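>> received
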Amino acid sequence: MGPAGSQGGMATLINNMILNTPNGYSSKVISTHEDGSIIKKIFAWRKARKELKNKIKNKEVDIVHIHATHSFSWWRKMNLKKICINKSIPVIIHIHSGRFQKFCSTFFGITGYLVRKSLSANCTVVVLEDRWKKILYEWIPTNSVVISNFSKKIVSRNNILNNEINLLMLSRNSKGKGHNFAIKVLESLENKGFSAKLVMTGIVNSDLLQIKVNKIEARGWISENEKYDLISNSDFLIMPSDFEGSSMSVIESIVNGLPCIVSKPSSETIGIEELVIPLDKIEDWSQKIIDLSVPSEYERINELLKIQAKKYSIENNKLSISKLYDGIIMGLNNSD
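>> returned
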């Protein structure tokens, strides 16, 4: 259960999980959210609750896997958890939010108290990276499970650099994602005498205060095919987010062989220290791109990415999810 029909990385992951359900299990998605008006959101939420109750009533459910973020979305997901627990259905709470720590600290810590109470029993908690298990230790159980996001290889890149450096930023339009920072990186490259172009998703030209039409493309929301076309034809992905949980954009780029320059929140995701640059050092971002644009360096980084890509394979994820589900089913059998 989660926003499977909406825009964003969580929807991509949910739908990929449905397509790659572990052997011995069958799965169906119930979408809890719809982009658009508040009326559409309410309708989607009510429909999801009704569908869940019907499936439980018809004995079609053994495990409910809930994908959650923060804010109001979190409390809606806790309502789903309550429905399941009242009918003795095991629940997995899969936390995706890169802002969950901040969320738990709101209202003088009362939110965190309620989160900790909600997660203390009758559910299994999944986080995306080891660092989140450490960061959220005050609010999540000590036996929380770490399962990485995953992706599949779609494109075959030739990794040949041309005279113009093509930068890509794949993101939705959200505060803290770093669209303006990406523009500054482009400007820094130009100031150093390098020809470059920047393509950004999630925003359109009218969202920008200043824009060089011939150097920046603000593409808004794009399709999956458009996304993979951009990954295929770009030279670097940049992810200057100040909170990212486990960026699907970074993971998709790694798996498909696109070098990434990232901020510290994506350091565990990228797994290559030299590709992590602080957000207060714009000149270092542009210089790293220049240094890696040397063909021999570009090829070296691509070889490192191939090693890291194994972590985000479909096979690894299926194995982790299968182990998670097996443990829950075994626990149910033992309790009988």
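>> The longest helix spans residues 314-335.
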